[in-house]
Design brief:
CATH topology of the largest domain: Rossmann fold
Radius of gyration: 21 Å
Shape: globular
Number of strands: 11
Strand order of the largest sheet: 2-5-8-1-9
Distance between the termini: 27 Å
CATH class of the largest domain: Alpha Beta
Strand content: 15-25%
Helix content: 40-55%
Largest sheet: 5 strands, parallel
Number of domains: 2
Order of helices and strands: HHEHEHEEEHEEEHEHHHEHHEHH
Number of helices: 13
Length: 322
């Protein structure tokens, strides 16, 4: 097993190095994309415009050797624009299904909160069911299938916020931050050109990725750590039972059992990225914010006092014993 884990680690290191030929910094984002890939889950990316979210995803898809489609979500987008529709062929007097961009292995849903609920629902249904029905025929989506959706946190005019129940479908919500000054200098030196060309060689393929996804099941998660994960998630619902009465007024709703499963899977993937076969408490803590921040619904009191999800999760990690 160790040899197989080591082989997967070597491939993922090559993927990371190749992505960095284009992308400066963004180590947290790249690692979280690798974790989502290993866990066969989807990611919601939140960050201001111009910090290379789209470029990172496109570079990531090329490096992985996966088919890629980018969909710009707009208020006039229809579900059929995403999933596909039936096309009438007059010469043959019959309808034929025309598949939409959702049938790529990696799909970038850009500014997902720009489209109305029916389009968001069509996307999220495809994410959950891994299949799309066009007319009376159901088509399976390709494997692996990864949706990376972006949303802008500062411009809320003309947007349709994702309901909490739909946000919960995302394995992680990753906050993408500004680069450091040194990183921005490298970006300037690399990108301030009128014509940019990057020749990237795929470092893996769909079949190998699916084999790496199965490796997650071989990473050991002890019962003690399982109980630690359950306690962390349960504390988001009943903080008073864990001696955290101060958090009770700030949490309207805690994380769901889907959050418990996601935290365990992401911790296993994080261990694999360290070339280890055993999950440590540090692995759970490393991914806790990305897994839980969109699953904790703050109360009005928390919003009024400026208590963020980050503050709540940090308190949980500090106070809940392993």
């Amino acid at each position: 097993m160790q040899t197989t884990i080591t082989a997967a680690f070597a491939v993922l290191e090559k993927v990371r190095e190749t992505v960095h030929k284009v992308i400066v910094g963004q180590n947290h984002l790249i690692d979280r994309l690798l974790i989502a890939l290993l866990c066969d889950g989807h990611v919601l990316l939140e960050g201001v415009p111009g910090i290379a979210k789209t470029l990172t995803v496109k570079t990531f898809a090329t490096t992985l050797g996966l088919t890629f489609k980018r969909i710009q979500f707009t208020p006039d987008l229809l579900p059929g624009d995403l999933t596909g529709t039936m096309i009438y062929l007059p010469q043959e007097k019959r309808f034929e299904p025309r598949k939409g961009p959702i049938f790529a292995q990696m799909v970038l849903a850009d500014e997902v909160n720009r489209s109305p609920a029916k389009v968001q629902s069509a996307l999220l249904e495809a994410m959950q069911e891994r299949q799309v029905t066009i007319g009376d025929t159901t088509f399976p989506l390709p494997k692996p299938f990864l949706v990376l959706a972006t949303q802008n946190p500062i411009d809320q005019e003309g947007t349709y916020p994702l309901p909490e129940a739909q946000i919960d479908r995302f394995l992680m919500k990753v906050h993408v931050s500004y680069p450091s000054k040194e990183e921005e200098l490298q970006i300037l030196q690399r990108m301030a050109k009128t014509h940019l060309t990057f020749e990237l060689e795929p470092q893996t393929n769909a079949q190998e990725i699916q084999q790496m996804q199965h490796l997650i099941n071989q990473v050991e998660l002890t019962e003690r750590l399982q109980r630690y994960i359950v306690n962390l998630v349960d504390a988001t619902r009943h903080p008073s039972e864990y001696g955290l009465k101060e958090l009770q007024p700030y949490i309207a709703y805690g994380a769901s059992p889907r959050g418990t499963i996601a935290l365990a899977l992401c911790a296993k993937a994080h261990a694999l990225l360290r070339n280890d076969t055993v999950v440590l408490p540090e692995d759970v803590k490393a991914v806790a914010f990305d897994v839980l921040n969109h699953r904790i619904i703050r109360s009005y009191e928390a919003q009024a006092e400026g208590i963020s999800e980050h503050t709540i999760i940090n308190t949980l990690l500090d106070k809940i014993p392993y």
